[in-house]
Amino acid sequence: MYKLSKQRVLVILGICLVGVLLAIPNVMPKSVKLPSWWQPVSLGLDLQGGSNLLLEVNMKEVVRERMELLEDAVRQSLREHRIRYQNLSAGADSVKVKIDNANSRTQAIGYFKKLEDGLEISVNENGTIELKYSETALNILTKKVVDQSIEIVRRRIDELGTKEPVIQSQGSDRIVVQLPGIQNPEEVKALLGKTAKMSFHLVDSRTTAADAKRGKLSNSSRVMNSAEGGQLVVQRKAVVGGENLTDAGVAFQDGGAVVTFKFNTMGGKKFGEVTKNNIGERLAIVLDNEIISAPTIQSAILGGSGVITGNFTAEDANNLAMLLRSGALPAPLEVLEERTVGAGLGADSIKDGVFASIVGLIAVVLFMIAAYGLFGLFTTITVFTNLVLMLGAMSFIGTTLTLPGIAGIILTIGMAVDANVLIFERMREEVKNGRSTHDAADAGFTEAWATIVDSNLTTLVAAAVLFWFGTGPVRGFAVTLAIGIATSMFTSVTVTRLIITYWLNRFKPTKLPI
Amino acid sequence: MKLFSWVTKDTNIDFLKPRKYTYTASILLILASFWLIFFHGFNYGIDFSGGVLMEIKSDNKINVEEIRQKLSVLDLDELTLQSVGEEGNELSIRAQADNANEESQRIAVVKIKEILGSGYEYRRVESVGPQVGDELKRAGVISSIIAIFAICAYVWFRFEWQFALGALLGLFHDIIITVGCLSLFDFDISLTTVAAILTLAGYSINDTVVNYDRIRENLRKYKKMSQYDLINKSINDIFSRTILTGLTTLCAAIALFAFGGDALRSFSFVILFGVIIGTYSSIYISCVFLNVFDLRKTQEARAKQEVNPFGNA
């Protein structure tokens, strides 16, 4: 007698039931609140509309800045140990210094090694020492900078109040920002385009910008553009850096908008000291290498908080306060790629996709019935179960359904019947070879199994490569394809078997209708 | 009820007989494809070439010429305007910024928006830098090659090396000819097209493996049958399955091509074309090719050496 054990029937039905339950949120109205694990499948930006930005962290800039700092450290170290040197300079990725005396050169290299971890130090034949980061040190630095950048980007985007943004790293130095529902990403890009490095510098009141042009500029000062017009000479070294800020906000003073800020204890103490000792001098507030304003210090500011005045509109002040609150980006970000899909196009894509799926489904079902009659009808049940299970699995796992993903579902509908065709054809052969109805049905399933596994696994290999190579929508397609392969293998073997077993036992046919 | 019972009939076709002609046809197609690939080239979408792509929609019919004139003040290379949809109220704008870098492209997007004004719905705005495009191009080629070899490695593991070689030839055949066709018809090559090509590889190998499974089974069953007859018999044994599965997948692919929308056009073309060429190559390339080897000899040699880890084949 051809039978399935009770346990197996229960397991099969149980899995199907779970699939149906998991798929249910997809047809429920949006207003119903559901627990987080019981949600409809999430739609990709190409279907729900939104903006996708690919940013690159400008590591060259970071390394260049680091080299400038390293140059200072090298100079200090050499002076401290009274070593004579020439041609100390910082390049894009290295610091070079020439030391003629071989003994002091060896000595100097010893000191340089202690300056920073991960430095690679080499000497060329004319006595020039070159310091640069090793590959590993660069990788560690990149990772650190990218992590920090992601944190800052997240804070800035949160300030905008975007719903459910996705911010993650891609590759070694890239950041992907996905903003559902954002149709015009200009505002976001403007916000991410600023590093927002703030610092306070004393203005060098003895040198004017005109003096500096004539070459009367000391090493410790530099010329900087001012947002209020013109140029000022400021001290290179910042008295307080923006990393000491704890809060910023907007206030209104004399009818204009101003930005208020607050320092942490250390910053407040430094700020207090500097303002106390330099009453009457001007203090430049510098943002991204541009002076916002340079007020004259009237009195010591000891409370650890202050005000930035400038020609701000309320919006400018708001943006600046927000940038200060979220902190400075460790490196400039460049937008490499930008993809924005309007909600209208997304909705149209879903409509087209659903329609194509329905047409495909009907065509496949009609075809199977035309080819196999009753068994074709059984296949229909299998195909539907497969669709529901796919949807359930995708909803539960949290896969993002993309436009190519919809294509994947449609293809799965067509390809999923393959397993059933293999089984039915095998049954037909077994009948032809003179086996009894039950034996033939049984053999159909067991004999076809190896072929089904082989053929599906090879497709799974292709899906795996797609997942590995692809990003965004293509990855979504790969996942959909893989889930489709798994569920269709399950349904076409077990569900079909369940139905045919039931049919055999209930109607006791003498012949298989294939 | 069973309208298609002709499909589920037993066949007795000599698939190996016309192999001179089928080989010649395949080789000619592959050569033609190579010619197209190298001399005609591809119509790369912005995924690969970099550039700006915008799709706008208006309540009224869009005058393409008017917009072309408006945009001509901008310094844009390769400006292509294309009406989308039947009603003529949608337009796709594709351009390369003058000196293509990320910055100038972003500015181009902003400027185009400024010139067109707010009377349009911006359905799609994409800007891809040239650097990303080159990287994606490389990734696409590399991943296709890896996919082919991964699939063949699996076939080698489950069958014999001759089968893996046959599968490799089949995959190579399908992909080259499909890619040649994409070039011939100037389809947009985007990331999804690459995904479609890998899916086609998956489908084609699926078909091949089902045939191979039967050949292997029959090699064990019919020890006395000549190899020529055996390959023929194996293909015939499951020919109805090959046709049925091909047709159902074709049904789905046609639905996708006809109703799936513009964004999936080249994707569904690849699948549509791939189902046909994949079915053909599974039989006429991958299976027929096996006849150049002495399969029995290797099979016996292997049987002595090891026990199949799966035990079921």
Q: Any idea of the CATH topology of the largest domain in chain B?
A: Multidrug efflux transporter AcrB transmembrane fold
CATH T-level fold name of the largest domain in chain A: Multidrug efflux transporter AcrB transmembrane fold
SSE string of chain B, helices as H and strands as E: HEHEHEEHEHHEHHHHH
CATH architecture of the largest domain in chain A: Up-down Bundle
Q: Report on the biggest sheet of chain B.
A: 4 strands, antiparallel
Number of domains of chain B: 2
Number of strands of chain B: 6
Principal-axes shape call of chain B: elongated
Helix content of chain B: 55-70%
Helical content of chain A stands at 40-55%
Largest interface: A-B, 78 and 81 residues
Q: Which structural class do you get from the secondary structure elements of chain B?
A: alpha+beta
Radius of gyration of chain B: 25 Å
Describe this structure in words.
The complex is a heterodimer of chains A (514) and B (313). By secondary structure, chain A is α+β, with helices and mostly antiparallel strands. Chain A has three domains: 6-47 and 344-507, Multidrug efflux transporter AcrB transmembrane fold; 59-134, Alpha-Beta Plaits, CATH 3.30.70; 197-329, Gyrase A, domain 2 (2-Layer Sandwich). Chain A has 14 helices and 19 strands. In chain A, β13 and β14 (256-263) form a beta hairpin. In chain A, α11 (374-397) packs across α14. Chain B has two domains: 19-44 and 133-305, Multidrug efflux transporter AcrB transmembrane fold (Up-down Bundle), CATH 1.20.1640.10; 51-127, 2-Layer Sandwich (Alpha-Beta Plaits). Chain B is built from eleven helices and six strands. In chain B, the strands form two sheets. Chain B has a four-stranded antiparallel sheet with strand order 3-4-2-5. Chain B has a two-stranded parallel ribbon with strand order 1-6. Chain B is elongated. β18 of chain A pairs antiparallel with β5 (121-128) of chain B, so a sheet runs across the interface.
